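Troubleshooting log. The previous run stalled partway through. Resubmitting the same two chains, unchanged.
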Amino acid sequence: MPDRERRWNGWGFADESAPVPESARTWLSKRLGAGDRLSAVPERDVRIPPARPVPDLPATTLSDPSSRLRHACGLGFPDVVRLRTGALEAFPDAVCFPENTRQVVAVLQSAAAAEVALVLRGGGTSVVGGITVRPGPRPTVVLTLDRLRGLASLDSVSLLATFRAGTLGPEVEGALAPCGLRLGHEPQSFEFSSVGGWVATRSAGQRSTGIGKIDDLVAGLEVATPGGVWRLPAQPASAAGPELRRLVIGSEGCLGVITEVTLRVRPLPECRDGVAVLVPGWSAGMEVCRALLQRGPVPEVVRLSDPDETSFGIALTELPRLASSVRNAIFGLRRFRHGCLLLLEWAGSLQKVTLARQTAAKVWRDSGGLALGRTGWQRWLDERFRHPYVRDALLSAGWGVDTLETATRWSALAALHNAVREAMTVAAQKAGFRTAVLCHLSHAYRDGASLYFTFLWPLRCGDEIGQWQAVKDAASEAIISNGGTITHHHGVGTMHAPYLEREVGEQGIAALAAVTRALDPQGFLNPGVLLLQTPEPGPRTPGGREE
Amino acid sequence: MPDRERRWNGWGFADESAPVPESARTWLSKRLGAGDRLSAVPERDVRIPPARPVPDLPATTLSDPSSRLRHACGLGFPDVVRLRTGALEAFPDAVCFPENTRQVVAVLQSAAAAEVALVLRGGGTSVVGGITVRPGPRPTVVLTLDRLRGLASLDSVSLLATFRAGTLGPEVEGALAPCGLRLGHEPQSFEFSSVGGWVATRSAGQRSTGIGKIDDLVAGLEVATPGGVWRLPAQPASAAGPELRRLVIGSEGCLGVITEVTLRVRPLPECRDGVAVLVPGWSAGMEVCRALLQRGPVPEVVRLSDPDETSFGIALTELPRLASSVRNAIFGLRRFRHGCLLLLEWAGSLQKVTLARQTAAKVWRDSGGLALGRTGWQRWLDERFRHPYVRDALLSAGWGVDTLETATRWSALAALHNAVREAMTVAAQKAGFRTAVLCHLSHAYRDGASLYFTFLWPLRCGDEIGQWQAVKDAASEAIISNGGTITHHHGVGTMHAPYLEREVGEQGIAALAAVTRALDPQGFLNPGVLLLQTPEPGPRTPGGREE
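Second attempt completed without errors. Output:
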């Protein structure tokens, strides 16, 4: 089937968009002031230099300007600004479309023999520079998994489904649903991101509180490496040395090309239920989430907005007059002056869902929470994949927006939330502009939770990336200094690579560099991604340490 | 507190033992015939060669014969035979007792500078040759974590407890219980094995079906390496590159010395309940287990004996006359001719446990199962840590016994069970003796389960290890050829190292070798364990592959 056309210079489908509601414009103008609108140049105005010659590769390879442009980068903030202004730093010299594992291995071997860099691409939604082609002396080929699609096999007894790496979210669920099964991994990029990309970047889905991160869903892997196919067949558990599947999960293409993934699937739930709850504040909300996770039953979705995100969410939502009056009355209560919106969803048997909801209701009531019914949850469910389109509309309207995320233990969560907000606000002030920082807790665990920050600011023409960088750097520094992980589910890419050593230690970097060098001796797979310096080929220094 | 004395040449406490019941002797004599009794030599008859000189190490170091003997090996079958016959192949030249992380690093650095091999030892219960000193040109020092004991810190908000690596099972639970918490990790070696050992070997506990393997319980780690301390602080989840904690978990001391572990703990359960169920056969039993895992609620303990283990279990259990008659009547039913004993246990709130038991009862009844009440479960609970003592008693009585374990997906479990039993039986026949192979499924997952085999045979004087090796080799070969993991929770050690490459691929071995060489350039940590060949120091061959 022909894929629905994707927007070449922004998020999502070309024929879909999400305008900024008038109420949100008012909120932003009041909070941040107006900015410079960033219009988008037409495709014909993008200057694409001639492609450098690349060796013959044993799979379909295209070098036309349109293909090169459409595979030049992901969808991070700098990517989108450069796409809109037509000012990309580099383009691939060719795009290669292998159709099966054998072709992937053959392409790797040809590319390894030649002096080219390979950028590995799944659904193309990286927001951390993981697939952005960078200038360099070597010609660059983008290897896309676009043609490795579909369900390869299903073991319905063991609830294991093996998908080719390029299979997109809706295709995964579409293949499983007729068998009464689902995966349930639903990142915001669900419609566009691929199984292989999820695994390569250690993705989390919006249901990961109940379903688990992709880390937990992977039972087996097939990886094409320059040295041949590496198979790690599905096992429920093992003690046969370190779990090497976990070394591939999150390796961001530096160890090889993930070609097939065996995933743990589950029966479609008999029943679903959800609720929006207003809790009296951020601390109270975090306590509710912690109690639900530590005492159970664990909801499938847990999503708590902080007061600023709650208030922005209200600004964005246009309700009928009566509903609006009721809402304003509730939010006008002194008790909910710093009110936080909490969305919960349960799935499973009717009995299980009913019991879980009752248990949860006791928890939120004990914390002063007030159930607002199913509407807010249903609205989120319906609109959750539309949110990223708003970025494009905001840029056109004069405001920049980006998101970043982290996670830490429950006892450190409030301090991390404060520190990151404060650092971002101060960084923007120093750079002479205002920023709004919104946050939600959206993936919860027994021992901690993730924080997902959205920041908005008025654009300054020509300095859009500089503004973004100032705030992003401050946030990254605050995260690492306050015990957060530099990324909970977006991945490292190039953006977070400078912070990785502070998180995993010099021994961690040495271990990763050693594995990368062992499996990719030429250092030609996704150079610059994950590790700041791609380990150089050639003899090691004695002692085995990187210089 | 002074530790209770351990048996130097067999399992457990010196003042505790488990005689072979008369009924079991009868069963064994009938099934296997009588064997040669393997008596144990007194300690004074063990010939211990003089210690080779070792460099001064910056921690308490002992070289007396008793310490060297008591740290020469683990408790695998060959270890115990050699201990009983006083014929160990090698002894450490010294035993080093660092008292904190700083001392461990200092010892590593001194040892790396000298030409010694280090064997890292936790509780000393390895059954796979993981801590057995082997002959070699280099003097060998055993570094024991025995003095790194106790709870280092507790974060009761995040339910995270940090223990020093040498802390033993009862000490872990003893430190947590007064805070209303538990870890719940209870391997059969619980009384003697240590936190660091659990992590180094990817241990599973008897409650791991409900609690998770140690892999899932580790939130953070501190590892002493020759290059310094490697800290991977507790995080609930991350996407910051591959999960390096998982690279340390199962690394069996080849990457460094685990000195502290932050574990995910949980509230003590309000209530526990268990039951013994008789199911009409092995297939029916596996179906019950699979249904419980895939549909939930998941029991904390699932333990299904195959028909042979069920019948041996009955032979071992002496009941009062009336109970015995009832039991014989039930097992005499045609429906239960190949009956299998299933033990289940639930823990949690009264409501949760009651509901889970009701749901499970429906599942086992649908499969023709019959609840036998709580007695069988309670007996298992009371006696489960006594079972390993039986090995020593059996050796004295003329029978060898060992265990081995694997895991695979549900759809392959029956075939794996058959193949391993068959291979072991045939191997014994070929070698001219009979063997009884018993099996239970004891760690269940949504996608598969572990199989734990016990095999018994009549000993042939002087050839005890040869007999064992013949059966063990056949089992390992059958496991690897039939899609099982070579070990589900005992670890690789030296015994399973020859099979690792067939499980994880040449790329997997290359990755492990590269990491080992990066963190232990001298190759002096647990040489021969995990990887067949300890990567040699010095320059690599071009292309990065091991020769």
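Takeaways: The first helix of chain A runs from residue 22 to 32. Residues 537-547 of chain A have pLDDT under 50 and may be disordered.
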